[in-house]
Amino acid sequence: MKVAPQKISSFSSVVDPQKIANRDYLPELIFTTSRSSGPGGQHVNKLETRVTLRFKPGNSYVLTEEEKEHLLKKWSTKLTNDGSFVVHSEKYRTQLRNKEDTITKFRQAIVKAFTVPKARKATKPSKASVRRRIEGKKKLSEKKNRRKPPELD
């Protein structure tokens, strides 16, 4: 039994999400740095290693109008009030590695947004599982019936 792939939105599922993610977004990405949280010893308040990436899908010239609409719909709960998609990283102790990490996270988010989930195939329970379920119900029913006081006629 073949099931037609479901469309999430009007976006065509023919486009490869990896190709969309591998486009050059760097001119559109805005990077800011800040101080990381957590322990760091004597230089904790001197280095800004946390990197924040901002991307505005509505203003992108790398994405087509159809792709923009799809991203805005998929990321509707993740966008800030000004329409920016924000990714943070303070995983590493250097700014460069955190910047690379934010770019990786951003690309993964794009792949996830454009990946169409597989349609669920409806299945029936096996005969053995149905039999086990019915037997279990019968045992429970018998157990409860044995708890009742005997009928006096």
Protein topology:
Elements: H1 17-21, E1 30-34, E2 50-55, H2 65-74, E3 85-89, H3 95-114, H4 127-147
Antiparallel strand pairs: 1-2, 2-3
Task: Kindly report the average pLDDT value.
Answer: 83
- Overall CATH class of the domain at 17-114: Alpha Beta
Q: From the alpha carbons, calculate the radius of gyration and give it in angstroms.
A: 27 Å
Largest beta-sheet characterization: 3 strands, antiparallel
Q: In order across it, which strands form the biggest sheet? A: 1-2-3
Explain how this protein is built.
The protein has 153 residues and is of the alpha+beta class. It has helices at residues 17-21, 65-74, 95-114, 127-147; strands spanning 30-34, 50-55, 85-89. The N and C termini lie far apart (59 Å). 12% of the residues are buried.
Write a concise keyword list for the protein shown above.
153 residues, alpha+beta, Double Stranded RNA Binding Domain, three-stranded antiparallel sheet, 4 helices, 3 strands, elongated, disordered N terminus
Question: What is this entry, summarized?
Answer:
With 153 residues, this protein is α+β, with helices and mostly antiparallel strands. Helix content is 37%, strand content 10%.
